[in-house]
Amino acid sequence: MGQSFNLQGILQSFRVLTSPRLMVPNIVVRDIRDINFEQLHKAGIIAIAFDKDNCLTKPYGLELHPPFKDAWRRCRDVYKDQVVIVSNSAGTPDDKDGQQAQAIEHTLQVNVLRHQKKKPSGGEELLKHFSGIKAGRIAFVGDRALTDVVFGNNYGMLTILTRDVVTEEGDNPMALRIRRMEHRVLAFLDRMNIKAKPHPIPIDLHAVVLQSPPAPESKEEAKADLAAEETRKKKNEEASEREANLERSKRDSVRGEK
Ligand SMILES: [Mg+2]
Questions:
Q1: CA distances from 33 to 10, 48, 212, 225 (A)
Q2: Domain ranges across the chain
Q3: How far apart are the CA of 179 and the centre of ligand 1, in A?
Q4: How far apart are CA 139 and CA 186, in angstroms?
Q5: Ligand 1 centroid to 175 CA: how many Å?
Q6: 251 C-alpha to center of ligand 1: Å?
Q7: Which residue stretches belong to region Disordered (predicted)?
Q8: Predicted confidence (pLDDT) per residue in 33-54, tens digit
Q9: What is the model's pLDDT at position 46?
Q10: Res 186: pLDDT
Q11: C-alpha R_g of the chain
Q12: What's this model's pTM, rounded to 2 decimal places?
C-alpha cells in the first residue's frame, strides 16, 4: 500500500509561498480527542471531514487508533452521516478497486470519499459529497498543513490541525520530513503573527477545544529531528556492518573449500 507521487499537491503548495496563511489552521489540537464535537456542531459546523493516516489511523492502517475510540463514537453520534474520510491513499485511484476504502468503511463505520484529485486539490469532490452544505459550515481535520489545511482553507472550510501524530513508524519518509518542516514553519508564522484567515462562523475556542497543545517549540522539534537522523544513521551503519560481515564469512568459506 502507498501513495503515488502527488504532483498536483506539490504545485498547489507553491501557492503557499505567496500566501503563507493558507497553511495556517483555524484551530490546533493535540489529536481528535481534544475536539468537542457537540460544541462544534452547536457553533454551526454541521459537517466534518477527516484525513485518515496519522489523524485517525496509523500510516496506511485500516483500523482506528484504539485510544481514539470514545472520541470517534462521540463524533459519529453528533455528526451522524455528515462525516466522511478524505484520504490521499484510500479512495483515490491508487486504491485498487476501492479495497482499502471498503475496509475502512467497515472498521470506522463512516463513508470514505472516492475521489480523483489528491489534497490539497479536489475540494469540489468533497463539496459534491456534502451536497447543499456550504464550505463554511464544514470542518476539515488532518495532521498535514500543506495538504489537509491548505485543502480546507482553499475552499473556505474550518481547518483543524492535529499536531500529535499517531505514530511516525511506517510513515512515508518524505511525508515525515515534510510534516516536521511544516511544524517549524507554523511556529515561525506564529512568531511573525501570521494568522489563519478569520472564519465566517465565530468559534469559541474554549468551547470547542478541550485541551490545546503546548506552544510550538521549534527548538525541541529540531532536536527530535536530529535524534531521528542519528538513529537512522546508526541503523544504516549497523546494516552495512552486517552486510560486510556476511560477505567476509562467505569469502572465508569459499577459501576454506579450495
Ligand atoms: Mg495524514
A1: 30, 15, 11, 26
A2: 7-216, 224-258
A3: 9
A4: 20
A5: 9
A6: 47
A7: 212-258
A8: 999 999 999 999 999 999 999 9
A9: 98
A10: 95
A11: 21
A12: 0.81
- Match 499537491 to its residue by C-alpha cell: 9
- Cell digits for 54? 496519522
Q: How far is CA 163 from the centre of its chain?
A: 9
DSSP code for 2: -
For 132, list phi and psi in degrees, rounded to 5.
Answer: 90, -15
What percent of the chain has pLDDT above 70? 90
What is the CA(54)–ligand 1 centre distance, in A? Answer: 5
Q: Is 209 helix (H, G, I), strand (E, B) or coil?
A: strand
Q: Does domain 7-216 have CATH number 3.30.980.40?
A: no
Please give the single-letter amino acid code of residue 113: L
- Residue 236 grid cell: 544504516
Contact 58, 143 (CB under 8 A): no
**pLDDT of residue 227 exceeding 50:** yes
